[in-house]
Amino acid sequence: MGGAPTPAAPASSSSSSSAAAAGVASLSLSAPGPSRRTSRSRTPPRLYLAVDCGGTKAAAVVCDGSGRVRGRGFGGPANYTDVGLAAFLRSVDCAVPPAEQLDAARLSPPTGVAPADGSPAPFEAAWFGIAGVDSAADVTALSPHLAALLGLPYPSPRLIVANDTSLLAAPVTDPAHAHIRSGVVVIAGTGSIVMSFGQSDTGLLKTLGRVGGFGWLLGDEGSGYAVGRDAVRLVLDQADRERLLAEPGTSSCSPVRCGEEQVETAEHRLRDRILKHWGLSSTDDLLNAVYSNDTPPSFPAIGASAAPSRKHRLASLAPLVFHLAFAHTDATCLAILRRQARAIAEQVCEVLRPGPSSAAHLRADRSVLCCGGSLVGVARYRAVLEEELARLGVVFARVEYVGDPAMRGAAALAGVWEAKQTAP
Questions:
Q1: Which of 92, 219, 292, 294 has its CA 20 to 30 A from that of 66?
Q2: Exposed, middle or buried: residue 357 (CB in 10 Å: 0-12, 13-18, 19+)?
Q3: Quick one: residue 64, left, alpha or beta (phi over 0 = left, psi -120 to 50 = alpha)?
Q4: Does 355 map to a domain?
Q5: Is 337 helix (H, G, I), strand (E, B) or coil?
Q6: In the chain, what is the greatest distance between 2 CA atoms, to the nearest angstrom?
Q7: Region annotation Disordered: residue ranges (predicted)?
Q8: According to the model, what pLDDT value does residue 37 have?
Q9: Prior bond to 144 cis, omega within 30?
Q10: CA distances from 304 to 36, 62, 311 (A)
């Protein structure tokens, strides 16, 4: 993942291009305009939309002002860089719940929003967290299209366009923990990134710093890819050592694949499971399985030109390593996971490095660690990460796994926006 543009400082502030790329934009409210619909009996709820746009899908959640979920929707792949503008907009359009699902006839129009077609837009504010949005140019290119899709005026502070990492920082705004005004986001799934966020005086998020997120060729420490890569590397190293010491005729086959009546041993458990997972007979086949353009036999046919990339091929081994580590207490696999957790912990330390005089300064003991992604979704791996952080002298005030970024984002947006609506 790349940098995470997030709503933060006033748009008129003099910020660098990198800060602009972080989506530094004002979220101050304009004066409420006249309502197109009024109700003498009650005021219908205002609605807030958050859309988590990732490589596999777009997930949308609509909350009312109390943070209650009023609607959900899903669309196709929505990494802006990967799929392009047209496909991205189709996925988002599919994900945003239709008006009839939200019972739009009973919803109050957003304050001060008057679309050109005369019909009120259903949303008071919307927050898009989009994978592949890594620059101010991306934000500028997408914003008018998203505003038109939602019926919001453009430009408008009610439309927030940011990188998908930003949604995971929603716990920073949690009113139940008002003493916490900063946080560190750790994403560890197929890839990885670490980012830090602070809460501005307006109650909204601002990006403080970033470490990693450079992709599998240059980084992705602590990710599923890195776990799989380490597992294969370890098996290959083990095979090399055994060949050097082996008697003539010793086989590098898995017992299952070679038809031998041997019981799986702890020493070769990881090797045998990887060979079985990829449908291979021997460690001699491993390098070809990793580097070849062909798909390993165990991968099902999923359409022409859709074969898993080398990165995803290696990342597919992560669940296997996790299973051996935590279900079998396999020392080799536990060591792999601890090494990768240590790499993430060291990146977290980097975003905590700036001192009090720096705008990027934050203290772990006054911050929340926000975790997202399939790997840190495993509680025992999070525990290993916390242990490695503690070894480095870092203990956060809170640790939270954000399993539903769109929901947390919509609820956080509603909380901040409603507080502004009722402020004197």
A1: 92
A2: exposed
A3: beta
A4: no
A5: helix
A6: 91
A7: 23-43
A8: 33
A9: no
A10: 51, 36, 18
Residue range 311-328: average pLDDT? 94
CA distance 350 to 293: 36
pLDDT at 205 over 60: yes
- Residue with the larger pLDDT of the pair 419 and 98: 419
Same domain membership, residue 168 and residue 23 = yes
pLDDT for 250: 57
Residue that finishes a domain, picked among 272, 298, 327 = 327
In a domain, 193, yes or no: no
Q: What does the pLDDT read at residue 56?
A: 83
**Residue 295 burial (CB < 10 Å; 0-12/13-18/19+)?**
middle
CA angle in degrees (0–180, nearest 5) for 100-106-109? 95
Quick check: pTM over 0.85?
no
Q: How confident is the model at residue 378 (pLDDT cuts 50, 70, 90)?
A: very high
State the CATH number of the domain containing residue 48.
3.30.420.40
Q: What is the DSSP letter of 168?
A: G
What residues does 199 pair with on adjacent strands? 205
Reported for 93-101, long-range contacts at CB under 8 A and 24+ positions apart, including other chains, are: 93/149, 94/58, 95/51, 95/57, 95/58, 95/59, 95/60, 96/49, 96/51, 96/60, 96/149, 96/150, 97/60, 97/62, 97/71, 97/72, 97/73, 98/73, 101/71, 101/73
Which of 327, 361, 380 represents a domain boundary (last residue)?
327
Alpha-helix residue ranges (DSSP H) falling in 259-378: 269-278, 286-291, 310-315, 318-327, 331-351
| The pLDDT of residue 305 is above 50 | no
Domain that holds residue 320: 230-327
Assess if residue 347 is contained within a domain: no
